[in-house]
Amino acid sequence: MKEVLAPPKSAIVRNETKRIRELFEQFVVPSYSRFDLVLERGEGSYVWDVDGKRYLDLAGGIAVCSLGHAHPEITKALTGQAKKLIHVSNLYYTEPQGQLAKRIIDHIGPGRVFFCNSGAEANEGLFKLARKFGHAEGRYGIITTTDSFHGRTLAGIAATGQEKIKKGFAPEVVGFSQVPFNNVEAMRRTITKSTAAILVEPVQGESGITIAKAEYLIGLRRLCDEHNLLLLFDEVQAGHFRTGKFQSWQRILEMEDVDLLPDGVSMAKSLGGGFPMGAFWVREKFANVLSPGTHASTFGGTPLACAVALRIFEVIEGENLAANAREVGQFILGELQKVREKFSNVLKVVRGIGLMVGIEFQPEFKAADIAKELHKRNLLTVPAGNSVIRLLPALNLSRAEAEEGLRAIEGLVFDLAKKQ
Ligand code: PLP
Question: Could you give the CA distance from residue 208 to residue 78 in angstroms, rounded to a whole number?
Fold first, then answer.
């Protein structure tokens, strides 16, 4: 009888990767450029591909997986609530939504919260808030900043300060204009009688981790007070304890020992730790601007999403993960600064705040290529802009895991420097 040899495991896996990739090639809208990795499962800060290869995940689902992967408390919250009630419409009250709104308000200040399903939708809510606020006086303009990112809806791309995001989708939603970041005077010069609001990310994420100066945020608050404008912060990426405080503007101002309250804040990503949800907070003074019938979402604030988000709050606070984000973030930043000093021909700048770190390579090194090279070293990161790699890991990342990631990055930088 002829002996049948089993194909080598690597061949089976290659076929598996190919088979799954082909599903995407045939059936999924090709709007993303994806890496050639098929991920299958995760645990904590690690994920495994279909080949069984393990990666340290310092990308965190792009600042989403606040407790890492497959966290038992998230699983418990999900299954516990799913057995009771997954969804009811917003025609009714449910306790998790009310409790979660209270939790957010306790961390920001007196106001109200609206729940939705993503960051773009949270910003859309802020745009509607601004338009409704200015409506009686014919004001509708929202000034944002260059290199910002506010989501992929039509209004989101009009708000976003990056031409490549807008290209091909004209005509643009009216009323948005962009001015340079960290420049109060540019903002002042752009205010007209139709301006209703200013929207900024206190830490610009997508363009490579650019941190607002405390005096900029204070200057914007003053400007908005002088001109009766809403001050809106997009905390979708930087929020939820990632910088060491609940929201990034609170961390930036804490460093200068000052405080302020914006008029609206958008949130998403880490809020649900991977369960899709978004929210915006609006200051008490403007809580009734969006009156009954003016805004809604079928899935916004379902008991399932809110139960998960509440449990995430409990774990973050119970384990003091904000402090961990500061400490581990500071350690990563310090170590990367040393690498930059040694290899400035490869690394241009390293910047960060808490567990939001941007590593800017010299312009000849392309962000996507660097990310691919790091895959070979079992590390996941997020490319940004032309030559920046972002680290946006879980808030419970350990020092040992951070060291493992740093070794991979340093190894790559060393190899690139040798080739220079
Ligand atoms: N705002 C900021 C600052 C973001 O970083 C993002 C996403 O990266 C968004 C808005 C859009 O969020 P989503 O992709 O959930 O719509």
Answer: 33
The pLDDT assigned to 2 comes to 47
* pLDDT of the residue at 324: 98
166 and 160 Cβ atoms separated by less than 8 Å: yes
Distance CA 18, CA 15 (A): 5
pLDDT at 1: 45
Domain co-membership, 309 together with 400: no
- Atom 13 of ligand 1 has which residue's CA nearest to it? 119
Report residues of the chain scoring pLDDT below 70.
1-14
Q: Which of residues 272, 292, 318 is at a domain's end?
A: 318
DSSP letter at 302 equals -
**pLDDT (0 to 100) of residue 15:** 83
Q: 311 and 176 in one domain?
A: yes
- pLDDT score at 256: 83
CATH classification at residue 203: 3.40.640.10
CA pair distance 24, 194, nearest whole angstrom? 45
Question: Do 165 and 194 sit in the same domain of this protein?
Answer: yes
180: its two tokens: 């340079």
Residue that is written with structure tokens 């200051």 in the block: 283
Query: Helix axis angle, 248-255 relative to 214-227, nearest 10°?
Result: 110
Per the CB < 8 A criterion, the answer to whether 264 and 286 are in contact is yes
Nearest CA to ligand 1 atom 7: 151
What CATH number is associated with residue 24? Answer: 3.90.1150.10
Q: What is the number of the ligand 1 atom nearest to the C-alpha of 276?
A: 15
* Residue 43 pLDDT: 98
Identify any residues that bridge with 56 across adjacent strands, giving them in sequence order. 46, 379
Q: Is 206 in the pocket of ligand 1 (CB under 6 A)?
A: yes
pLDDT confidence of residue 34: 96
Same domain, 83 and 170: yes
Compute, in angstroms, the gap from residue 243 CA to the centroid of ligand 1: 17
Q: Is residue 112 located within the same domain as residue 165?
A: yes
- Please tell me the pTM assigned to this model: 0.96
- Strand 230-234, strand 264-267: pairing: parallel
Domain containing 131: what range? 73-318
338/343 Cα distance (integer angstroms):
9
